[in-house]
Amino acid sequence: MSTLLPDLERELLHAAHRTHPAAAPATRRRSRRGHRRLVPVVVAVVLLTLSAAALAATGLISIGSPVPTSHQQPDPHRDAGAVVPGTTKVLSLRAADPDGGPDWAMRVQATTRGTRCIQAARVVNGRLGVIGQNGIFNDDGRFHPLGPMSGSLACQTPDAQGNTVFSVGMNAVPASGGLGGFVGIDVGGCSGKRCPPGDLRNVYYGFVGSDATSLTYDGDDGAQHVMRPLAPYGAYLIVRRTTDTANTGSVFGPYPGAVVRKITFRDGRSCTFPKPVPGARYEPCAAIDRQPPTPKYTHAQLAAPVRARPYLRRSPRGGYWSISVSFRARAAITTAGQSYAIVLHNANAKDGVSLIGFTRSDIAAGSVVTKLAAYPARAGVHTGEVRLVTTATPGPFYFQAGTGTLVGRFKVRVP
To answer: What SS3 class is residue 261?
Structure first.
């Protein structure tokens, strides 16, 4: 609005002169002095009137201080990595809040470990942020922008086609937009059952792939609605009132949120999803079965001796024997979609293996990797193996027996 002030003042001055065109010089001087005192008041009143009208018409709110960045910033070489400067992009997709005010939106970011991350929050002037309510920013009612370098917990490695297909469902989150899934910031405020019931939302968002042409979902009104996912990611965003305040938390995975009933794709294929009732199961969706883009290796390229030994872990409550495994990494790890998995053969475990762990950070080719099991190992002889595994599925690695490329095997006796 400030850019209108010079023109507005000039028009008021011209109007004042036109009102007294034949005034005597002395009268004109007095008139000019009087109208100089009057103009700022008139301008202020007009500007306030215009501003109030604009706020009422558009629902805009004033801008407050940015959301502060915490001291605990993500490690660029570990887990999903850190946000790459200049990659934060707010998508044009919008979802109205049930109580009005600023819409909800989502943004996408790239990280140093090759992942694509998404965030959802309120939006004003094309910037994502939170509203000062629900116990944050002293409930000042202002919009507080998120910095472009604040990351997200919802990240996934693109597949061989460059797609990321994953979804987030967040239940009973505050209407302020402070979803809690941000990395490197401290939003605070109420959460879950501590928020007023009317200020809770269920927020569903994600990517269903570039081939998706329509998405059908259950609305707040009980009817089904159809939206066109936003290209090029197949992005969708749905915001509903929370009706079940006992159901809090979030779900992150390859399948869309609980309100999505159907996805249709460009070639005519479709995936349907049942309502989330006990016993309901999601059938695999062909469009979501993605191939990881990471390099494929043969056993000959990765083969290395694996050394395992019993390891005595001490704690205030005493100690217990565990297992330590070491090997030399022939292939480098530079992305979050690739990891070395250390497993034990265990007939009593699911899939016949139990997991010592995955590597979660960058690894230089030729370096020695050591992984300690976090749990006690029973006495006796244990056998296991190290494998290089890749994934294009969101969330933590899930090891299935026989997957990945074998590095080497080991045997260890625990006292």
So the answer is: strand
